[in-house]
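User: I'm curious whether this sequence folds into something compact or stays loose and floppy. Could you predict its structure so I can see for myself?
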Amino acid sequence: MDENTFEEEIDLLQIFEIIKQKLSLFILICMIFCTAALCITKFVMKEEFTATAKLIIVQKSNSSSSQQNYTYSDQQLSQKLANTYSQIIMSEAISDPVISNLDLYDKYGIGSGTYNNIVKVSSANNTEVINVSVTTNEPQLSADIANEITSVFEEKIYDIMQIENVTTLTNAKVPERKSGPSTVKNTLIGALIGLLICSIIVVISLFTDTKVKTEEEVKKIFDYPIIGSIPDFEIKDAEAEENDD
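Assistant: Here's the prediction. I'll summarize afterward.
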């Protein structure tokens, strides 16, 4: 066994010994952080509800000849436009009318900055469908905003792009279940934070422990031969010795 391997084994033994000694403390730390995360999720963080409306982009061919070729080209163009339209939905050209129409700023304090945080727009891969998702603390409000966005977008897109090719595929429905925060996810995060703190304690204990525990450590530190050692023994009580006799 070389010196490096020996040092690694000693370190592992020290780590396991520290964990064994402080196991109760580590369990308590993890439980505290899990409980704290659970309570914050349940009683402090507000529930979130997400409503999603869908738009579809359909290119219209003007010529009846070579209809199949036109249809394929139109499909490719629609897929590319989906990314462009996603950016337009997030712009003030759409957000300002939506905020104004629903009086969002005065009633809920939702301005342009908040709009960009609660609205998520995504285009499904290789499709002409655009998903408009809105997340707020009220299920009805989420659905109202999502539907208003699609309505304003259909109205404004011709003025912006000079193309009338957007249709609402599905309106947003009022969500019946919350979309967040996740109790399980946050509790696991609390557990991970607890484990991280336990790891820090182990590292600190490992580097601050200066006790010499074995003959090999003595040889390494002082570089002197060991001529003898005192074995471990128990001192028996005098009365116990007399009874044995």
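Summary: Residues 5-10, 63-70 have pLDDT under 50 and may be disordered. The two ends are 47 Å apart (CA to CA).
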